[in-house]
Write a structure and sequence with these properties.
The chain has seven helices and no strands. With about 120 residues, the protein is mainly alpha-helical. It has a single domain, classed as Cytochrome Bc1 Complex, Chain D, domain 2. The chain binds heme C (HEC).
């Protein structure tokens, strides 16, 4: 009787322990704003000098709504349709269409914006 009980208890503990197994976390390197900027943006943007697109210094202040700024980088043309400021920037830059970046994650965009904020000092 006692042995039966022990087996049952051990089995229960083992099953519970298995249930606690967490899936192994995938390691993701923190987004590198400088590298992302160089790869995706630097053909048209510099932080301090106007190239094809405007100098990005001060962009965090010009876009107080962070969600809108992310949307703009994901797809500028969609935001230009609904936002007067975005439309004015488009017109001031000869209506050159900025490449959409639908695949950049929010973390990657934040890393780029942080890089811009550090470079503009
Ligand atoms: C093909 C050229 C091109 C590339 C590549 C590009 N942009 Fe632009 N960007 C522009 C142009 C041109 C404008 C001006 C607005 C317009 O014409 O739509 C602009 C405007 C912007 C603005 C608004 C600036 C302001 O003063 O409010 C932000 C923010 C911006 N770009 C961020 C980025 C980021 C971040 C990347 C890289 C992930 C990037 N852009 C890549 C051309 C580009």
């Amino acid at each position: 009787m006692f042995i039966r009980y022990s087996v049952a208890i051990i089995a229960t503990i083992m099953i519970a322990a298995c249930g606690n197994d967490k899936p192994t976390m995938k390691y993701e390197a923190p987004a590198d704003g400088k590298a992302l900027f160089k790869t995706n943006c630097s053909s048209c943007h510099n932080v301090k000098v106007k190239l094809v697109g405007p100098a990005l210094a001060g962009v965090n202040e010009r876009w107080p709504n962070k969600k809108k700024l992310h949307d703009y980088i994901h797809n500028s043309q969609a935001v230009i349709k609904t936002d007067a400021y975005a439309k004015s920037v488009f017109e001031a830059n000869n209506k050159v269409i900025m490449t959409p970046f639908p695949n950049l994650t929010d973390d990657q965009i934040d890393a780029i914006l942080k890089y811009v904020a550090e470079e503009e000092k």
